[in-house]
Design brief:
Layout lengths: L1 H29 L5 H36 L26 H11 L1 H22 L4 E10 L6 H10 L3 E10 L5 H68 L5 H36 L2 H4 L10
Antiparallel strand pairs: 1-2
Length: about 300
């Protein structure tokens, strides 16, 4: 949506340029300095560019509707709700320290944290399964008060006195015999541990590779922004020189309009490069798991 709005600004500026050329040619034609063909050429360019503006305005509205659906913004009773971005695209300076970004990713990336938790869970299950294969030694102690009377009543009477008591201590040692199921469960748990460990290693490698690619994209797109900035400056200067030539009858309306179109294309390419760079920076934050943290959004239950 932001890119579409920036493109609309460029197209509106191109309309202003064509309109200015039309006004100049019309006045010059009345003075006999330009032909009617020059006026028609400028008017045709103006009509085409106005059509481009109308098409772009429709695209902006369509993208606003898509964004409103994503944000769950209702139309309301007062008519359509407009979505107007308040931030302008700009070159965001970022630190491209691969080691630091990787450390952040291993700390914040939810998939990596989940995989580490799976390893801990499988290791615990393996320890329990192994424990079931080991001998079991229990210390058993007991203390009791007896009754020694000949009748039930006498027995209860003797128990109440507490004179007749006894105690015992024993050790109970057991060995698992023929525990095929327990052995199979232990072997399976060891496989699960190894599989989850390999999954963590694979995820680490994948995150590392993705970070390298993301950093490269940021660097390349940053250079593209610089190149397109220079391109805009050059095309502005070319148009200025061509307009000067035109005022001195050394050029034609066709060439002026072509130089205006070149400048329009250069500005659009600059905006595209700027948006590509911005998206590359956000993609790097997404891969490193710091996207929400950087825009001060926290989720309850997630460690920071």
């Amino acid at each position: 949506l932001i890119y579409a709005r920036e493109t609309l600004k460029v197209l509106e500026l191109a309309v202003d340029q064509a309109d200015s050329l039309l006004a100049y040619n019309s006045t010059a034609c009345e003075l006999g300095l330009r032909t009617e063909s020059d006026v028609l050429e400028a008017k045709s360019a103006l009509i085409n560019r106005e059509q481009d503006v109308l098409d772009q305005e429709k695209l902006v509205c369509d993208l606003e509707d898509k964004l409103k659906r994503l944000l769950n913004i209702s139309t309301g009773t007062d008519g359509p709700v407009r979505v107007i971005p308040t931030d302008s695209p700009e070159v965001i300076q970022v630190e491209l320290d691969w080691e630091q970004i990787l450390n952040d990713a291993l700390r914040y990336h939810p998939d990596y944290q989940a995989s580490k938790t799976a390893v801990e869970k499988n290791e615990l299950q393996a320890a329990v399964a192994k424990n079931s294969l080991l001998p079991d030694l229990n210390l058993i102690t007991s203390y009791k008060i007896n009754g020694s009377g000949e009748t039930v009543g006498d027995n209860f009477s003797d128990i109440g006195s507490g004179d007749t008591y006894g105690w015992e201590v024993s050790l109970n040692l057991s060995f698992p015999v023929g525990s095929n199921y327990a052995e199979a469960a232990y072997e399976k748990s060891k496989i699960d541990v190894k599989r989850s460990q390999l999954s963590v290693e694979d995820l680490e490698q994948r995150i590392s590779t993705e970070i390298q690619t993301a950093i490269r994209n940021v660097e390349v797109n940053r250079e593209k922004v610089d190149v397109m900035t220079l391109s805009v400056e050059i095309n502005e200067l070319k148009l200025e020189k061509e307009e000067e030539r035109y005022r001195n009858n050394l050029s034609t309306s066709f060439f002026v309009l072509e130089y205006q179109k070149d400048l329009m294309n250069a500005r659009n390419l600059y905006n595209k490069a700027l948006m590509d760079y911005t998206m590359a920076v956000e993609e790097l934050k997404l891969i490193s798991g710091t996207l929400l943290k950087d825009i001060n959004i926290s989720i309850i239950g997630i460690k920071s």
